[in-house]
Amino acid sequence: MQIKVVKRLMEASEQHAEVVRQRLREAGVVALNLISAPGSGKTSLIEATIRELGNRVRIGVIEGDPDTTRDAERIARLGVPVVQINTEGGCHLEATMVLRALDEMPPNGLQLLFIENVGNLVCPVVFDLGETYRVAVASAAEGHDKPAKYPALFRTAQVTVLNKIDLIPYLDFDEEQFACDVRRLNPQMPVLRVSCRTGEGIGEWLKWLDEVLKPVV
Amino acid sequence: MQIKVVKRLMEASEQHAEVVRQRLREAGVVALNLISAPGSGKTSLIEATIRELGNRVRIGVIEGDPDTTRDAERIARLGVPVVQINTEGGCHLEATMVLRALDEMPPNGLQLLFIENVGNLVCPVVFDLGETYRVAVASAAEGHDKPAKYPALFRTAQVTVLNKIDLIPYLDFDEEQFACDVRRLNPQMPVLRVSCRTGEGIGEWLKWLDEVLKPVV
Question: ipTM of the assembly?
Answer without folding.
Answer: 0.92
